[in-house]
User: Fold this.
Amino acid sequence: MIFVLNKTDTIANQFLAELRDAVIQQDKARFRRNQERLGAILAYELSKSLHYETREVQTPLGTASVNMPADEPVLGIILRAGLPFHNGFMQIFDQSPSVFVTAYRKVKRNGSFLIQVDHISTPNLDDKIFILCDTMLATGQSIVVVCKELMAQYNIKELHIAAVIASTEGVAHVRANLPKAKLWLCAVDDEMTSKSYIVPGLGDAGDLAFGEKA
Assistant:
């Protein structure tokens, strides 16, 4: 299952356009804020797919019946670029615990690379709904490596992957290796550079949000 936000005309397209705009994105605070907005919108859309149960809420004047999510999902983030996007999800799922992962590309002499996972800080994910948030889904390799490592340790009930921009190649890689995952994307771009940057994409999301790496 793949949900692509920009296939529908909504105000979210303005936030996405500002993220892509080479002039507007120089405002780091605005760049982070637009990621948060898109994260919150995608989280709301994702919430429609959850299982709900009726609960009674006591008001000062009586009792109201409300359909509420039966499970609180666990959110995950691969540091650092997706932190604002993850924060947008936290604004909607504001009681959810989080998984934090540090991973990076280990480049070989021939230019190819492996994904090196250094650290995972996670609650118990057995029988949990897990949502992994990452701004860019480029090759999809880091997402697949992280999810498979977590799935080897825990019996995850549902796996959701959310990204602002994905490449068609990355989507294909995730679907081939994580066939039960549900994808929630703001946009899908067709091309990537030789260094695995999405085109037209938006550039280096981590540098634009937090400054260039040394």
About this structure: The two ends are 39 Å apart (CA to CA). Residues 28-47 form the longest helix (20 residues). The CA atoms of residues 101 and 120 lie 5 Å apart. The longest strand covers residues 98-107.
